[in-house]
């Protein structure tokens, strides 16, 4: 593939400016960056877009809480994202802000086109709205009559005049697109999920709001000034307005996107709404929508209130930016969730980077210095080590498709195989003995083999660790660019003769955690068996009091339809509002017999969903062959009284 012959457009989500950037944002952006660097190195005409999503009720509220105008607030946070990406050496070509004028004009043009086409009509929206997720929900989707099924927060009821997009009209066309394009949504399991959802039926989508005004106004031609656009319509359009849609049109030849990288949380918007909007605009659809999983810390969702949010800059400062980039892409299979742990990060640095890669370069520096004044030649490498070269090339051939299908962890795994070929070859052929035996040509050819393996690996690792790999290349007498990529990777060629440049070790060993850990979360109760093994079944009083037991008054109780065992209870624990607890006690208690009685409640259990309903605690009970009894205080106690 020659230079400039193909256009590649790569995007990240545009991030909300209601909060500062964290590891999740860095993860998406680093994956996109690696793809962009790779495709530029491969000679493809690449355009990489990122930016910030600045409108909507959530931003308006966040600004208000801080006594700022939404624009002031958006300016402040947007620049934090920009600064972080500069620090992370992100090679974006454009940073879009949805408050930019060209974007607003482009969105209005798109609205106008869909409106003129008859895909937008005016009606009334009545339903639930979650401000945190900026999402509408129907009665059937909502949990417990008011909670958001995605984030669990309380939703508000909205009834307002609204324009609707005829999403239902595109249901069949969307299904056809998913069916005909096996890889349109990656990983493939996510595509199946989306298909099931769409097959369940699509309702038209409310795309304007009247109850606040921090958003893009409707086009003048529609003449309805009290409406602003729904933030997701505004936001999704960034992928084309950034290319000049509706204004200069100057970069529209990059469209359609090669890949929209996103987190799994926003798949529905990208895999359903966005292609439907594009169909309405008569534009081609993206090649891939790739959804990665969720980063957690010690198994928990990160949140500011828990104080466990990972600040990517702090990690990069402590462990090295490029080490961190490598870790994020290598550690988690794309699409799966990943837990951030410093131990895992240290292991990757010490083992993969230090032992496998860094030491190999050090050994080569040592051996070539000792045997041949630092001179390295590929002259006889194929003569003695063709089998090793074949093995290396076989791994290399697998790489490119893995990258473009977002199997980045597998890409890196495969890339490490040649390093293992090199390390094994040193152990097997023992060049120090070859030298002793006078087999000098063979020994020097082995140095050639190692140098070539390091060079090829450096080129293919370049998208993930751009500066480190350039240092390796300099030491090996070449530069990483389109030419070296073509020669050493595509054409499977070998290095020109060179004198190695000694460089200090690239990955000094890390022995202890370099960042302060957040306070350890309360441990999950362990399975009885292993607790017995560790402690003989005995726990300390502190361990016992990790469980918060309280007296609760059951204020409401009802049967859970279609469930033989479950009752849905509202239990007053003396808090702002009663908790919902789903209890498996239907066989022994009728709902009526429970209301007004008390029970002992485990109050600090992690909320869980049972049959799609949130359960925020557990009732204590004892069960024997005569049935089950709830544990209750002998005399009524104030709701919320601690049990000790
Ligand atoms: O959703 N693990 O913006 P957002 C992994 N503005 N990735 C995570 C993550 C985590 N814990 N948390 C966030 C929005 N992300 C919209 C997007 S696009 C037209 C509009 C990443 O600031 C992940 O990429 O909430 C996720 O999709 C994105 O941040 C959500 O960022």
Can you tell me about this structure?
The protein is of the alpha/beta class. Among the domains are: 102-166 and 205-234, Methionyl-trna Synthetase, domain 2 (Beta Complex), CATH 2.170.220; 339-499, Isoleucyl-tRNA Synthetase, Domain 1 (Orthogonal Bundle), CATH 1.10.730; 540-630, OB fold (Dihydrolipoamide Acetyltransferase, E2P) (Beta Barrel). The protein is built from 21 helices and 26 strands. A 6-stranded parallel β-sheet has the order 3-2-1-11-12-7, with helices on both faces. It has a 5-stranded antiparallel β-sheet with strand order 20-19-18-21-24. A 4-stranded antiparallel β-sheet has the order 5-4-6-8, with helices on one face. Helix 12 runs antiparallel to helix 16. It is globular, with a radius of gyration of 30 Å. The protein starts with 6 loop residues before the first strand and ends in a 14-residue tail after the last strand.
């Amino acid at each position: 593939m020659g230079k400039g012959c193909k256009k590649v457009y790569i995007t990240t989500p545009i991030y909300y400016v209601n909060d500062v950037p964290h590891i999740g944002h860095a993860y998406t952006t680093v994956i996109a960056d690696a793809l962009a660097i790779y495709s530029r190195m491969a000679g493809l005409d690449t355009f990489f877009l990122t930016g910030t999503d600045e409108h909507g009720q959530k931003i308006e509220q966040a600004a208000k809480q801080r006594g700022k105008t939404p624009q002031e607030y958006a300016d402040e946070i947007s620049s934090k994202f920009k600064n972080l990406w500069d620090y992370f050496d992100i090679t974006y070509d454009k940073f879009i802000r949805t408050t930019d004028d060209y974007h607003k004009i482009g969105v209005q043009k798109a609205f106008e086109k869909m409106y003129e086409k008859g895909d937008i009509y005016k009606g009334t929206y009545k339903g639930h709205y979650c401000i945190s997720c900026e999402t509408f929900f129907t009665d059937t989707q909502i949990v417990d009559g008011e909670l958001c099924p995605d984030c669990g927060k309380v939703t508000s009821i909205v009834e307002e005049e609204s324009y609707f997009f005829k999403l239902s009209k595109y249901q069949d066309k969307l299904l056809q697109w998913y069916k005909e394009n096996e890889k349109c949504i990656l990983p493939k399991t996510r595509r199946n999920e989306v298909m099931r959802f769409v097959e369940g039926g699509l309702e038209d989508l409310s795309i304007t709001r009247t109850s606040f005004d921090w958003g893009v106004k409707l086009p003048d031609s529609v003449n309805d000034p009290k409406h602003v656009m729904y933030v997701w319509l505004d936001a999704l359009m960034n992928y084309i307005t950034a290319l000049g849609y509706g204004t200069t049109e100057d970069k529209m030849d990059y469209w359609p996107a090669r890949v929209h990288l996103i987190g799994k949380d926003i798949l529905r918007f990208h895999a359903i709404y966005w292609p439907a909007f594009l169909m309405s605009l008569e534009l081609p659809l993206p090649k891939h929508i790739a959804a990665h999983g969720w980063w957690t810390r010690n198994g928990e969702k990160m949140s500011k209130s828990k104080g466990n949010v990972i600040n990517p800059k702090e990690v990069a400062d402590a462990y090295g930016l490029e080490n961190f980039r490598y870790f994020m892409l290598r550690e988690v299979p794309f699409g799966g969730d990943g837990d951030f742990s410093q131990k895992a990060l240290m292991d990757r640095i010490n083992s993969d980077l230090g032992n496998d890669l860094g030491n190999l370069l050090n050994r080569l520096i040592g051996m070539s210095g000792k045997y041949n004044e630092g001179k390295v030649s590929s002259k006889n490498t194929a003569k003695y080590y063709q089998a090793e070269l074949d093995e290396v090339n076989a791994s290399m051939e697998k790489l490119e498709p893995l990258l473009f299908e977002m199997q980045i962890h597998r890409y890196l795994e495969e890339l490490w195989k040649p390093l293992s070929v090199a390390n094994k070859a040193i152990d097997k052929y023992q060049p120090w003995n070859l030298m002793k035996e006078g087999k000098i040509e063979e020994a020097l050819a082995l140095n050639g083999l190692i140098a070539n393996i390091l060079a090829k690996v450096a080129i293919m690792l370049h998208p993930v660790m751009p500066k480190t790999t350039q240092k390796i290349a300099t030491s090996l007498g070449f530069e990483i660019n389109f030419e070296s990529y073509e020669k050493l990777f595509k054409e499977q060629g070998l290095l020109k003769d060179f004198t190695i440049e000694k460089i200090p070790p690239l990955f000094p060993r890390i022995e202890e955690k370099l960042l302060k850990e957040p306070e350890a979360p309360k441990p999950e109760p362990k399975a009885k068996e292993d607790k017995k093994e560790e402690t003989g079944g005995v726990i300390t009083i502190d361990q016992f009091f990790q469980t918060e037991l309280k007296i609760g008054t059951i204020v409401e109780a009802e049967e859970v339809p279609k469930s033989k065992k479950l009752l849905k209870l509202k239990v007053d624990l003396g808090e702002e509002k009663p908790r919902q607890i789903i209890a498996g006690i239907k066989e022994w208690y009728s709902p009526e017999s429970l209301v007004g009685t008390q029970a002992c409640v485990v109050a600090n259990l992690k909320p869980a969903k049972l049959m799609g309903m949130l359960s925020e605690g557990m009732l204590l009970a004892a069960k024997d062959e005569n049935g089950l009894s709830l544990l209750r205080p002998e005399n009524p106690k104030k709701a919320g009284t601690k049990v000790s």
